[in-house]
Target: Quinone oxidoreductase 1
Amino acid sequence: MRSVVYTQTGPSSVLSLVERPVPEPGPGEVRVRLVRAGVNPTDWKFRANAKNGPWDEVVPGQDGAGVVDAVGQGVEGFAVGDRVWTLVAQWSRPGGTAAEHTVLPTTRVAALPDVASYDLGAALGVPAVTAHRALTAGEDVTRLAPGAMEGRTVLVAGGAGAVGNAAIQLAVWAGATVVTTISSDEKAALARAAGAHHVVNYRTEDAAAEIGRIAPGGVDLVVEVALAENLALDVEVLRNRGTLAYYADNGGAEAALPVRAGFAKNLRLQGLLLYTLGEDLLAAATEDVSAAVAAGALRVGAEVGVPLHHFSLEQTAAAHDAVEAGTVGKVLIDIATDDTGA
Model:
């Protein structure tokens, strides 16, 4: 099989396309013939920053979509021919999704609803599961479904990003009113396309005043990508017993907390990292995300604020560079076509 690998960490030039034997699934594992792979910031960061693990050779990529073409001993719930999407495929494993096949435990694959394209399937893992955890990090919403967030207001910082877009779509599906902060008219259009009810340009507007006008009692939850830059604003606009869920360190590695303002509101500060969520939260996320996909509530494409950028497997290094450069939308690797040419 064709596979992209790296044997040392560093810039994207360490990636190479090689031929490797098709792997066989072990007990509790399935083999997936991949059609698409998704590229996320975590992929180039693993490659560049020596976070790939102890293996001599690594196939990058956490996210992908394809078809199960072999099952290991004792596997239940999956069969040859099933359409699936992957999550955390390369975490604590050397074999990710930048290859024609990958072997994964069944806990790292989920059924891909028939209504979903492989483009969407490959775009789900890191963004959608991260967004799900952020939206369920508060006191009273632990699962997402239609109506689960009815009457709540969510502030999504950076609504034009992949996680932000997924958070907007999932929150709207669950019934929340969604406010998002953006930095340009272009990003405002993407956030509106995703379904955001209110868009605030923090560079041209008084963000705290505008969010306060939209949610006079304060927002229930903040999904934050740049804690160091936005912590004071988040604390100001959250309601009493609100939750601030943050998943990245964009804008700085340290943040100054307004201590009295934070404890006076009984605020919850919830950090989250996809890889250490635990199997229970991953399982809940995959079930809810798949339900949202089946309902048509979670989509990709320019019409919903997620422009798609396709690269071939041979162009994986360029795909990594595009993500590192901040390409807006979703970067995908076209590995194969399915039996219908999709």
Summary: The first helix runs from residue 41 to 48.
